[in-house]
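Sequence, structure tokens reproduced for reference:
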Amino acid sequence: MSMGASEPVPAAAALRSIEVAAHRGSGKDYPQPIALQAHRPAAPPENTLPAFHWGWARGRTCELDVYLTRDGKIVVVHDDTTGRTCDRNLKVAASTLDELRRLDAGIKKGPIWRGLRLPTLREVLDAMPPGHRLYVESKQGPGIVGPLLAEIDAAGKGPDQIVFISFSIDCITALKRARPEFTCYWILVFEELKPGIWRAGYDRTEDDNLTFRTVWQQPVDYAELVALARHDDVHLDGLDVSYQQPDDFAAAMRRAGMPWGAWAVDDGDVAVDLARKGAIQITTNCADDIRDALAYAGRIARVTLENPEEIKQ
């Protein structure tokens, strides 16, 4: 897995340029009761219109997840079933949009959110303020690409506003092939099975062209992953990886010329470390905290590198 020693990254430059995306608008919601939500008790429920208003009010970029419904509509929801976030449990891909819109997508977060509905992608796109951005994660295979792009086109959104991401190498490749002008990141997860022993996970698509199956690469082969991301007529724009990753990952990507970002980064120190290693974007449930940590660390790095005397003031 190792491809050589790590090279230093200019800290101030890295910290200045990183993009922070608000995960599901306001962050992931966990089944209640759970102490992990103490950092965002008043935030709207994830992947709802108030969540995206909340996220865009605090920064430029939000992230969401999309599925194709049984009747061919694009709905915003993370899980393949609705039980975690809604009042009833339906399988998203097997339900019509009308059936899904009857669900209460707010009540599980608290009574003040009662009556919220699962939004369509078009509703979120129409709510996006000028100059803001949206990471759109496809939760299905290439079968969603046509309807997804039709929604983006109908809303008049271009590559300066939309970034596509997916665990499915098949889907993200199809998106990049169809619209090479859009930024497309392939999502990977790393798991440490025991100290120093890692595997990498991503998704392939079943015969229905929509359903995912997870593929595990062990041992991790960076050259093979890069080759999957850059092959034939398609060159993906980067990788979007778990913040827990092998120690030599960042150096390997730097040598391969492969940009990368990280997801589920909720600790400021971790975010600063990833940025210094070369991450170009971070997706987080704690957007305010992560932006503050990067801004502070970037100021300190700039002062230290450019005018050390300012650090004393």
User: Anything to note?
Assistant: Residues 167 and 187 are 4 Å apart (CA to CA). Confidence is low (pLDDT under 50) at residues 2-10, 303-313. Residues 287-306 form the longest helix (20 residues). The chain is about 30% helix and 20% strand.
